[in-house]
Structures are given as C-alpha cells and as structure tokens.
Amino acid sequence: MQLAAIDIGTNSIHMIICKVAPDGSFEVIDREKDMIRLGAGSLGGRILPESSLARAMQTLAKFKRLADSHGVEEIIATATSAVREAENGADFIAAARRDVGLRVRVISGTEEARLIHLAAGYAIGIRRQRAVVIDIGGGSTEITLGTAARMELGQSFKLGSIRLTEGFAKHDPLSKADERAIEEHVTRETKAHLKEIRKRGFDWVIGTSGTMLALGAVAAEIGKGPLDVRRQVVRARDFAKLRKRLVDMTQAERLKMPGLDPKRADLAPACSVLIDTVLTLLGGPDVRLCDFALREGLVLDYLDRQRAHIKQVDRYPDVRRRSVIELGERCQYYPQHAEQIARLSLAIFDGLQKRHGLGAAEREWLEYAALLHDIGTLISYESHHKHSYYLIRHGDLRGFDPREVEIIALVARYHRQATPKKSHEGMADLDGRGRDAVRMLGAILRLAEGLDRSHTQVIAGLDVVDGGKEGIVIRLRTAGDAELEVWSAGRHAEALAGELDADIHFAVSPVAAPRRAAAANRSRPAAAGKRRRRAVA
Question: Is the pTM of this model over 0.85?
Fold first, then answer.
C-alpha cells in the first residue's frame, strides 16, 4: 500500500509518500516541502493571516494531487504550533476539509514530541540505549529522552525559530543584548527539563528537523568539510563556532554564506543561539543528525496501530474491495454467508446480462452490496436492512464517489422487506438510471438471499437458462438438502420476475447425490411479478 504523511508546521509544510510492505516496514518514495511560514506574525494566539492561509491551501492542494498521482490510499495530516495557537485555527482545519478534502488533526506539543522521538529512535537505531532528541520547528522546540521503544521524558517548548526571531532579534546583525536575551530566555524555559535529563543520563543526542539539518551541515563544514548530513555527527564546539559567526553577520552576508539555505538566513542567528545554549546545558555533547522527524513518526505510529489493516492490504490490494471487507469486519459480518450471497448474486447477474443490460460498474456495486447486506444486524436483527443502509452510507468506504456509496447502500437495503419506492430515503436523490439500477440489483440480491436461507451454503452453484417467452430457468446445483432454499427462493423471486417481466422457474440438480435429482426437481409455485409472473421450482 501507499501512505502519505503531511506535517503542517509553523515554518514549512512537509509531505512524504511511503510504500508500505506487508511486514510493516516502509520506504519513502517521494517527498515535498514548501516553506510558506504559516505562523509568521500569528504566534501567541493571533490569527493566521489570509495570505498565509491561501498559500497553505494551495500547498495542501498540490500535495494532495501528488499523493493521488501515487495512488496513495491514506493521507495522515497533522498541524502543530501555528494552527494549535491561532485564534482561527479551527477555520483552517475546516477549510482544509472543505476545499482540499484533507482531514487535518491538530496535535498537542506532547504528542508532537512523542512522534518525533519515535521517528528518531527508529531511524538511528538506538534500541535500548537512551537518546536525547532535539527538534527545532518554527513555533516550538521538542526535547525528549528515551529508548527506541519508549519516550521517558518529553516536553514541547515555545522556542521555535520564527518565535525567537520575531520576539528577540531586533537588530541586524544580532546585537549582544538580543543574543543575551535569547540565551537567557532559552535557559529559563529549558533548564529544569535539561537538568533532569542530565540526571537520568543518556548515550546519544539526536538532532532532527530542517533547522538542525541546515545549521548542522554548515557547522560540520566549518569543522571538517562538506558531508551528507544524514546520520552524521556534528561536534558541539562546531555549533558554538557557527553561533559566533552568525550573530556577527548581517542578513546580506548570511545570504551569501556557503551551505546556508537563503530561506533560513533571517532565522539562523536566533536558532544558532538556541542550539548552542541547549547543548551547553546538556554538557556539550556532540549531535547525530537525523532526517526523520514528525512526518516519519506519523507513519510509524499509523503502522503500529494498523497492523491488521496492513495485512488486509496484502490480501486485498484493491482499495475499494479492501474497504468493503474492512467495513464488514468492523460490523462483525458473517463472511461465509456474505460471500455465498455475493457469488450467487453475480451468477444471476451474469446469466441475465442480456435481459437487464447492466455493465461492469453495476456488477461491482451488486457484489459489494451483497457482501455488506447483513451488517445492520450489528445494531439489531429487526429492520437490519435499514441499519445496513445507514452503516454503508456512513462507513467511510474509500475509493467510491458518493453516488456509488448511495447505490450500494440502497441495494443492500432492499434485500428484504419493501421493494424500492421513489419516496424512500436516498431514492429520490438518484437520477432515473440510478433508480433503475437499484431496483434491478436489489431484486437480484433479494433472490440470492433466499438461496442461502439456512446460511449453510447448500447451493453449490447455479446456471441461468433464458427461454425467452417461455421464461427463465435457474438450475441450482446443490450439495445437500436444499428444500428450504428452494422454498425461500420462490418467495423472493417475485421482485426480479417483475423487473424482467418474465416467469422464473427453478430446477434442482444435487451434485452430492445425483440419484435424488428426479425427486428434488418437483415444481412448486413461488412468486409473481408485474404481470403476476410466476417463479416455479
């Protein structure tokens, strides 16, 4: 399966697209980033500016198109500090759902820290050793301690690159007073947490996020030349040297600095002070850089929670079929009966194709309605056909458009009791072609349901013989006593006989005991249609 994770941060919006293996491992096959600075000027409870919102929606729409082009089946989208604090954060979430079709979950600082720690521990492979993970975003900095399996301590501080720059960087280059104010503020906010971390002890310090990677790359070049930043170790003293350089440089000079992303040039001085201060309070450890962060943590957390779903992906690669099976399983359906009804429904559909003239799309709707027709019994047996209709409509079936879901739900609803009427819920909303499909497919499903009345799958198969004006003969191959099924089928054939304007007859050929065929082939009246067409067994 393909999975996408979107991290809507204060500074940037990131997306990764992953290919997930049946064993739960994953490979990043595409990634995208847009540094739009959603939270610039809005941190601390102020509103997100309209211009920032517009840019964010454009980015999310672009990301969703990219995810769709990869055939992604699930998009996990989260928002952090900027949306979490903004007065109009809820409006942003609603707009993302309405305009882009993305469900965005706002996560707490503690949850953000946990997911980042999970990603870093997985990427670096710390196992049972203890690691400090430092992630610097635009609005917050997360500092955690723990093993790969568990975060022991985790805290999110309002010390992001944009927040510190907007709050303290009053001069260019950074004045000594500005620098001192940043250092004192960072110390005041983090000192107790970092003291506890030092008390417990650690084996690694891991730096994640774009800011740590960007400044880590520049700092490492100072000490020992260019390198691939991923999983490389940067000495604490090289971060200290970088701090001294950056605070003395103007914006124009920083824009020309080799290796420094021009988009981060204005944020770099405050961030360098932040990093150096935290490392000093930790005792000056070296930092191992890591390119896994929140978005990879989202993927790992999803995979951990969805192990059963991942196994289903391997069993059912098609997202539509898998979504139907998963809904059935959530509603505790009876797979043997459901699959039997689906098989019989399709056999009847195929045998009558020249009569009804429906195509591949309608055939698929019939199969899925058959698989789900009884899920309403989760609520109660009484009126379970109506409960099935409701559960299918609201079952979050993936890969279907709303009209398809409505038709599938209606077909399942008409497997028993009343036949379709335009006044019924859902029917009036369909066009004439859709209503015709529901009536025909519902009638087929109703007959198939009758052919497994005992829920013992005694009908091994069937063949449809269209005799034209002489009517239709459905030859049933049975693997046991099918008297109950033949009786029930006769009662339930009336709707289909009426739709086809033809008599329906049944003939039985036991496959397990062929000598009884003559006795089992006795005829009996069963149903009538629009012209009182008969169904005879």
Answer: no
